[in-house]
Write a structure and sequence with these properties.
Largest sheet: none
Number of strands: 0
Order of helices and strands: HHHHHHHHHHHHHHHHHHH
Helix content: over 70%
Structural class: mainly alpha
CATH architecture: Up-down Bundle
CATH class: Mainly Alpha
CATH topology: Amino acid/polyamine transporter I
Strand content: under 5%
Mean pLDDT: 81
Number of helices: 19
CATH superfamily: Amino acid/polyamine transporter I
Radius of gyration: 21 Å
Distance between the termini: 64 Å
């Protein structure tokens, strides 16, 4: 058995597992559990092609992080700094602006799920505070190594429970009771949903920077530098795995909720309760642990992963931007930013209560608008002279990248025109 594992390189792939799974942990969350399920519930399978297209058009940019680290030993934060200090400064500002509302929304939804599943009478704000404090000390104590091991279990659990749920839902009878409204691109409500759906499907392009940080940390812990093929296989398993799970959640929404006439709550915690309740009432009470595990593991993995990545990104950026200021570069480190993030999230949750919609809309719109800029910048980085030809994307991926850049730019311009002039 051991010889067979070595023959097929299984040990090498298992040793590499980490960055791709952490990507999956960060990507699978609101975009999958909430947005994909809502797409299926509201429009059936109409937006399945949009889900697949959004994933495929962004794919070339998402694997750039691992490529760049393997080629240069540096992260994309370093690449932005090398391209121009102002570029890294702009990225730093965008990260600071977005991290509090994004993390607050994720934490609130996760807290709501935990309260619902464990039948807790604790308020969402109180559960959120406990969750924030737990994750803060979790990372200060163990950081990447603990997350790396934990994510393998969470993603496997999520995938298996989602497959079971979809297979079970395929056997239920048609439950359509009301007339449904088809998707209309010129319907304001539908268009806004589509923008949010595409903007975070499978995740904001910012995640490419995060992947480069995880990859660098993983590669530094390895005794032998991995080969490009193995690195790309590991990441692509994570990427296309998230696309499969997103499609599964959309299918669940279409199979279980589409045409029932029930309205899904815009509040994350209430939505979670409705979601699990609808599944169990339609599929059967036996499905409760399956759906509960899928929902909790989805949001918990996202919350934990994003809690780690913002401090990593900001501490790295500060070291480069303030390299001449020893006090700032030394003290504004990982621990500092994780405390700042945690304190800011708790404050935001207690001040705003359960109203997360404005924060999510702000973060989604910001990610949507910056997507084509980051896509082009990342493409320029991987095609620069700093990267050896052996590590650059193949010709078909370069063409693929330009198709993605053109599409993202055109759709962003359409959105801005519609927002400003219509």
């Amino acid at each position: 058995m051991e010889n067979m594992a070595e023959k097929f390189g299984l040990k090498r792939y298992l040793a590499l597992m980490g960055p791709g799974l952490l990507y999956a942990g960060a990507a699978i969350g609101v975009s999958h559990l909430v947005q994909s399920t809502r797409a299926g519930a509201d429009f059936g399978y109409e937006l399945m092609w949009v889900l697949l297209a959004a994933n495929l058009l962004k794919f070339p940019f998402f694997e750039i992080g691992s490529r760049y680290v393997l080629a240069t030993g540096k992260t994309l934060v370093d690449a932005y700094y090398d391209a121009g200090k102002w570029i890294l400064a702009l990225f730093f500002i965008v990260s600071v602006l977005s991290m509090f509302p994004v993390q607050a929304a994720l934490t609130m939804v996760t807290a709501g799920l935990l309260n619902y599943v464990f039948h807790s009478d604790m308020s969402a704000a109180s559960m959120s505070t406990i969750l924030v404090v737990f994750t803060m000390f979790f990372f200060i104590a163990g950081r990447f190594q603990l997350l790396d091991k934990m994510m393998k279990i969470i993603i496997l659990l999520l995938t298996l429970s989602t497959i079971i749920a979809v297979v079970s839902a395929l056997g239920i009878p048609d439950h359509t009771t009301t007339e449904t409204t088809p998707f209309d691109l010129f319907n304001k409500k539908h268009l806004l949903f589509l923008i949010a759906f595409i903007g975070w499907m499978p995740a904001p392009i910012d995640i490419v920077v995060w992947t480069s940080l995880w990859s660098q940390s993983k590669f530094q812990d390895m005794k032998e530098k991995p080969d490009l093929r193995s690195v790309l296989i590991e990441f692509r398993i994570g990427f296309f795995g998230t696309m499969f799970i997103a499609a599964a959640f959309l299918a669940l929404g279409a199979l279980v909720m589409h045409g029932t006439g029930q309205q899904l709550s815009p509040n994350g915690a209430l939505f979670a309760g409705q979601l699990i309740g609808m599944y169990t009432s339609t599929i059967g009470s036996w499905a409760y642990p399956v759906i509960a595990i899928a929902a909790v593991s989805t949001m918990l993995s996202t919350t934990i992963t994003v809690t780690d990545v913002y401090p990593r990104t900001l501490s790295k950026s500060v070291k480069l931007l303030f390299a001449n200021n020893h006090f700032i570069s030394k003290n504004l480190n990982y621990a500092f930013w994780i405390v700042v993030l945690s304190a800011g999230v708790v404050t935001l949750i207690w001040v705003s209560g359960t109203t997360m919609r404005l924060m999510v809309d702000f973060a989604t719109s910001l990610s949507f608008i910056t997507a084509p800029v980051l896509a082009y910048l990342n493409y320029r980085v991987i095609m620069s002279d700093a990267v050896a030809d052996a590590f650059k994307p193949a010709p078909y991926l370069r063409i693929w990248s330009w198709i993605g850049i053109i599409f993202l730019s055109a759709f962003t311009l359409f959105y801005l025109y519609w927002l400003l002039f219509i």
